[in-house]
Amino acid sequence: MPAAAAAAALLTAAPVPLANTAGRISYKCNRSLHRQNPTLFPEIRSRTLFFPSTHLVELLQHRHRNIVSPLTAAASNSFLPVGGSKAGDSGVAGLLERLRAWGHFLPGGRWWVFQGCDGVNRDEEQWKKGVPVLCALRQMWFLVARDRWVIYVAFASLATASVSRVSSWWGHGQREGERDERREKELAELSIPHFLTASIFSAQSGKSSIFYKNARILVSLCLASGICRFPHEGDNELYCILQVKRMREMLYSTLLFQDIAFFDEETVGNLTSRLGSDCQQVSRIIGNDLNLISRNVLQGAGALIYLFILSRPLALSMVLICATLSTVMFFYGRFQKRVAKLMQEFTAHANEVAQETFCLIRTVRVYGTEKQELERKFGLLSPISFHLRSHLSGFLTVPTLAVNRYMKWLERLWDVSLRQSVAYGFWSLSYNFFYHSTQVVAVLTGGISILFGHITAEQLTKFILYAEWLIYSAWWVGDNCSSLMQSIGASEKVFQLMDLLPRQQLISEGKCVLLSKGIRLPKIVGNIEFVDVSFCYPTRSMVPSLKHVNFSVLPNEVTAIVGRSGSGKSTILNLFLRLYEPSNGQILLDGIPLGDLDIKWLRENIGFVGQEPPIFRMDVTSNIRYGCTRETTQEEVEWAAKQALAHEFILSLPNGYSTLVDNALLSGGQKQRIAIARAILREPAILILDEATSALDAESEHYVKELLLSVGNLSGQKRTVIVIAHRLSTIQAADRIVVMDGGTVAEVGNHKELLQNGGFYTRLVGRHSDALA
Ligand SMILES: Nc1ncnc2c1ncn2[C@@H]1O[C@H](COP(=O)(O)OP(=O)(O)OP(=O)(O)O)[C@@H](O)[C@H]1O
């Protein structure tokens, strides 16, 4: 009760007008509520991040009816529900209030304000941060410049289809002396309405020779238009395919060369969504949208010129109508760009969740959370947008929503799509209105002109046909512009990702290639030194994972790193593998800073086996050969597999070494054996093992460990080994043990020395003797 009272006080203390700030208020209130009593309000806090404030009240009423009734009473005085009315509102005032609320559904109303992924309303400033249209087009052009010939062919055939001179088709058969008419007949597709009308009127007036001539021209024009369209459309398709391919290539290679920290922040689902649907959508920009826009602009311009030739006053009225339509088109296009951006974002989030769920399907099954993953408690009004639901709640009982992570994003997609559909409805409405306006204006003004003898009935018919053509072209331009805006909206994230610079260590002379840059030592001795190394993961820049770490690994020795979970053992290996760069200090290999060495060469000389080694979806031989730069025979692959005790189980697979495997098709121990065989085959100078044998049975582990730690490479020479271990047997076998505690080195020495010290290591061994033994 005190919490509810405090929360009520918080809400009433700051009565903020609701308009345009619903998301923000809701968020603030809930932050405060959550701080006041996190146990009472945890769920509400996360939910209302994307709910408008009215839903806070709804949610509280529904979920915490008993506890927070004073809060909702107080809240309802401060916050007027979007579609509802205050308690006590009745009669005309209440009705007016409700009507006013419904007014928010009209263009420009509050219903059209979008919320971003964080659930907060996006203001104009945030939208302006997007990629400008010209900038997006420039980037697109740069992307396809290599294949510009495809575009040239497409545009040339388009121009031919739309604007080619008819004179070559029928030149000598024209009526002499009719200058205007001759000019009018210069356009191929555009002249179809002209000859159509001329044919009809010549038939009506009984001029059979003129009728047949016009009919012949009509057929020729239709054929010409069709033939020119063929290369044009084919080229466009070809262009779209090329562009998607090129974009995916570029994006994929840009992503591949990013820092590991980048992948800590971006999820796989999100990135694959950009590579998939986003690239497809963006490819429409030049291949489809721009192409259709130019075609319709050409045709519209031709029709307009024709109209001006026929009648200037009538043509001006058409210009006026088209200008109004263009204004509507501008706003609609801007709206579409925003919609597309949000839809891409929400789709990416939905993909992210789906990908995660499918990757963790075993956990979902074991914990029986399928229903939870599908949870969806909509009622009668499902699925309609949150806002509309809120308005309807004034008339109907609307059940509270309960959505899971995936449904949350689908619901938000739906929410945006709903508004998109309504906007399309408004756009179509305006088109219809203007389309019919042209006819009415043409008939009225044209009829008057006929009455006064300024134009003939034939001219008016032509005028109406061309006016329709003009408005039709304007409509298509509008439609394609909005589609272009959609594509540009969708392109934003793709271009942002493509603009990322590749990781510094992989750049050479401005190119990101698998390159050779830096020092290559003639031979790796294997002396590794960590000098005052400190490190924070970029995603947690305030929390150091390593603090002033100093230790050495001597050549041909086995160094074990031990310590409690989270003490920084794997981080040390990550830094040595240069997956991250130290925030402070240096790591040296044979006296040379790692940063000065050729990274490609360095990695070729390191073998790494992790705790959960990844297996690629390919056959066993390819998996063992993965990353091995030297040529290897099948015998060598089998030798490595035998050393890793993998040979027997591989032979028992349906196709032996040719069996297709992946992470889900092998046991943990089998995966580790393949990864160990992979490391053995590389014959690395330095071997790094991160609990590499944890999934093996005791006997196999003993044998494999012997091999990895003592036997060394093919020629029997020992190598430098760094091993993270929890088992006492592994640790005892090490020449040197580095004991980590809370990101610092607590002790260094061998097993005997450390036990004699009686320090942290002794306590660790004592406390975890069961686990270590
Ligand atoms: N990618 C990452 N981003 C942010 N923090 C991380 C990341 N990886 C590890 N950490 C944090 O760094 C600290 C050290 O982690 P590390 O993986 O090195 O521990 P560890 O000693 O290897 O643990 P374990 O024995 O459980 O594998 C931990 O607090 C961990 O939460």
UniProtKB/TrEMBL annotation:
Residue span(s) of domain ABC transmembrane type-1: 217-486
Broad class of the protein's primary localization: membrane
Any GO molecular function: ABC-type oligopeptide transporter activity
Entry protein name: ABC transporter B family member 26, chloroplastic
Any Gene Ontology CC annotation: membrane
Source domain of life: Eukaryota
Species the sequence originates in: Apostasia shenzhenica
SUPFAM superfamilies cross-referenced by the UniProt entry: ABC transporter transmembrane region, P-loop containing nucleoside triphosphate hydrolases
Transmembrane segments: 314-333, 433-453
Gene3D superfamilies (UniProt xref): ABC transporter type 1, transmembrane domain (1.20.1560.10), P-loop containing nucleotide triphosphate hydrolases (3.40.50.300)
InterPro entries reported for this sequence: AAA+_ATPase (IPR003593), ABC1_TM_dom (IPR011527), ABC1_TM_sf (IPR036640), ABC_transporter-like_ATP-bd (IPR003439), ABC_transporter-like_CS (IPR017871), P-loop_NTPase (IPR027417), Type_1_exporter (IPR039421)
Membrane topology type: Multi-pass membrane protein
